[in-house]
Design brief:
The protein is mainly α. The chain has one domain. It is 71% helix and 0% strand. The chain has 18 helices and no strands. The longest helix has 28 residues. It is globular and about 55 Å long.
């Protein structure tokens, strides 16, 4: 992969466009009350009503960066613009929810499935191999083999459907819908979701560098720039939030870049991008288990018992003290550091073991065990003293 100084121009453009857009949105929202968050909720940990339109600024930053990319790397800009259209359904579903608070979770799920369908059927991008034999055997099944029918009928769309690897499409839809919602789950504290996404993108950029994939590497830098422009306003003071639209947009974009790595660089294990994004995935799966089997609630029932919430309440916050609004805000901002570490360490390991599926699977299992152990220690007030002291510095 050839490195040139021009590679930094699109990310810097995306950063500048995102910073300026967020500033305008903060001002407009304060005057016209656009996209303000609800006044109450179990996952609300800030005092002031705040705009949830940060995703709009990131979207603008990505578009401006891709426009600049088109003049220097035409394929980057052209293909990136089409991928932005693929993310439109899930992004718009979240954005309308931010503006109206009237879009049901089921409707947002259908919008995520629509984006995954476009990604798979139009761009032929999906989960088509895992390097795990029995899973790959299932992924290879086509619709025509499942129903014992002819592969050619003379109807183009029907033939394409019959030849589609149906299980691969279902797994792709599950991955897209699951990951975009997992980013929404870890959102809730200043800088938490955005700093985690920056770690994910840096990990995928490392994989692209190892695989000599210049286009994905440049897209990762652009995405980091657009996200960083939002982060500068979001952390530490929480001037604006991602909202559902921003969380879904970033989640979808990370999935797209992650899927492109094994598709374009077969020598890199498909499990490497999975390890990069393991933190929100484990958070989501464990939250579903906790809600269903521990608290006997519906799995989509919101609560304030996520790991990052417990870190805030039991590690960085001192509830026995009379804290000012500034003290509470400082405690809120500290949570992002824990989320960044939980995201950056697996991303680094993914680059170290990029070609070793077995080591990647062991790393994922180890991370899940560490997550569950840390969660239970915090719940039972058995947090190591060194970690508690570090959290309250």
């Amino acid at each position: 992969m050839t490195y040139t100084p021009h590679v930094w121009i699109p990310p810097l453009t995306g950063l500048a466009a995102s910073v300026v857009s967020v500033g305008l949105l903060v001002w407009l929202s304060a005057h016209w009350r656009w996209g303000m968050d609800k006044g109450t909720g179990v996952q609300k940990f800030h005092a002031k009503s705040t705009s949830r339109l940060g995703g709009v600024a990131i979207f603008i930053g990505l578009l401006m960066g891709l426009w600049v990319s088109y003049h220097q790397f035409p394929k980057d800009g052209w293909l990136g613009a089409w991928l932005m259209l693929a993310c439109a359904p899930v992004f718009l579903g979240g954005l309308i929810e931010d503006l109206t608070h009237r879009v049901s979770p089921n409707m947002r799920l259908w919008m995520a499935l629509a984006s995954s369908a476009v990604l798979y059927m139009v761009f032929q991008l999906g989960v088509k191999r895992t390097d795990i034999f029995f899973i790959d055997a299932v992924l290879s099944l086509q619709v025509c083999s499942l129903f014992d029918c002819q592969q050619t009928t003379g109807v183009i769309l029907l033939d394409a459907f019959l030849q589609m690897h149906f299980t691969a499409f279902l797994l792709t839809a599950l991955v897209v819908a699951g990951f975009v919602n997992s980013i929404n789950i870890i959102d809730g504290f200043h800088g938490l979701a955005s700093s985690s996404v920056i770690a994910f993108l840096a990990g995928i950029a490392g994989l692209a560098w190892l695989g000599n994939d210049g286009m994905v590497f440049r897209w990762c830098l652009l995405s980091i720039g657009a996200t960083l422009g939002f982060w500068l306003w979001n952390w530490p003071w929480g001037k604006i939030f991602l909202g559902d639209g921003g969380a879904y947009l970033l989640g979808f974009w990370v999935v797209v870049l992650g899927l492109m790595i094994p598709h374009r660089t077969p020598e890199i294990s498909p499990m490497a991008p999975v390890l990069v994004g393991i933190y929100p995935l484990v958070e989501t799966v464990y939250s579903m288990y906790r809600r269903k089997f521990v608290r006997t609630h519906p799995i989509n029932h919101p609560d304030a018992l996520h790991l990052h919430t417990l870190i805030y309440r039991r590690l960085v916050l001192r509830p026995g003290l009379h804290l000012s609004a500034g003290d509470k805000n400082a405690a809120n901002a500290k949570v992002a550091w824990f989320g960044f570490v939980l995201s950056a360490v697996p991303a680094g390991l993914a680059c170290v073991f990029a070609h070793q599926t077995g080591a990647l699977l062991l790393s994922m299992a180890f991370f899940a065990l560490v997550y569950v152990d840390l969660y239970r220690r915090i719940v039972r007030f058995h947090v190591p003293l060194w970690l508690l002291a570090l959290a309250r510095r």
